[in-house]
Amino acid sequence: MKYVHLLLLIVTSFVISFLLFRTGVILPWLFGSMAATFLYIRFVTRDFYFPKWLGNVGVFVIGFEIGTQFTPETVQEMAGHAVSIIVMTLCVIILSLILSVFFMKLTGCTVETAVLSSIPGALSQMILMAEENKRADILLVTITQMSRIVLVIILVPIIARFFQSDTVSVIDDSAPLLTESFITPMILIPVAAVVIMYILKRLKFPVPFMLGPIIAVIIWNLSTGYDFSMNIEFMFAAQILFGIRMGVQLSSLLNQLNGRMIISMLVQNILLIIGTLLLVGLFQIFMDVEFNDLFLSAAPGGIGQLIVVAVEIGADVAMISSYHIFRIFFIILIVTPLINYILKRRRQKQNET
């Protein structure tokens, strides 16, 4: 019977996600599967089987997608803006961490929750870290990160319209789909991903199920030059699996959400967007770059949503992509392990006292 419930939940998630997709809702496959899980638990049963490994499959595929964005061309684009990319990324992250102190005072949450809620453009990574950290409130982390995506979708295009360029930009979709470009040696990619994932897990590295495929695909792209893009259907399936996993975890925690938390999340995320806007104004004094391009490059949102906005308003898609891809990898490979280490050391000191 447990497998029947699992199958029904997956089908329900697909149906709701598809309806949201057709109506133009942001991140429909992720939000749709989460909504389906909440409804299933509320109206069907709380006692159903959803193995953790199935959710990890979704994380694994998302890791592949992130890795495919890192190509030799992307590296060249990053090199042209290396100094500004690094400085801007550091400034946005430092701003986020400063606001995390403010957020902690508003909500009364732990340091772990405040930090994981505040890092921008890293929804999946921060949620996974919240899962692994017992002192982190996964509900608050998830809702704060997701509310930022919604605010970015609403506010960033409005702000960017004031500085809209007359030029038209297009996304380079030259990388062929995985199913169209598959060659036998590519079997090495998932094999290497599993090996790297196992090593990272043994080293107690955060989010190994995501880092494994990311690193494996990067090695493939840079060593062979034979890059590819993930089929959108794979990403839909991955988001459904990850969304169900998140929905299961959050369903028992929603009753803990209160008005103070909601106001705190809105204030923090709006301040982060305003702070980024001010940073961009400061940076533009020293850079010969259009305000719009720099603002979308620095905006605290997901790369997918911001690239769509960039295309719509004719911004420099290549530049904006390079900034956000760097920030993704900087957060995953440097910020995430560093935060994980600092929080772990903090817990150890608290246990000793």
Describe this structure in words.
The protein is an all-alpha fold. It has helices at 2-22, 28-43, 52-68, 72-80, 82-107, 111-118, 123-132, 138-161, 178-181, 188-202, 208-224, 232-251, 259-284, 291-298, 303-313, 317-352. It has one domain. 41% of the residues are buried. It is globular, with a radius of gyration of 20 Å. The chain crosses the membrane at residues 6-32, 53-70, 82-103, 138-162, 182-200, 205-222, 234-254, 266-287, 325-343.
Structure, briefly:
Pfam families: AbrB. The chain has 353 residues and is mostly helical.
Largest sheet: none
The amount of helix comes to over 70%
Number of strands: 0
**Uncertain runs:** 167-173
User: What is the rounded Rg?
Assistant: 20 Å
Q: What structural category characterises the helix and strand content?
A: mainly alpha
* H/E element order: HHHHHHHHHHHHHHHH
Question: What do the pLDDT scores average to?
Answer: 80
Oligomer state of the chains in this structure:
single chain
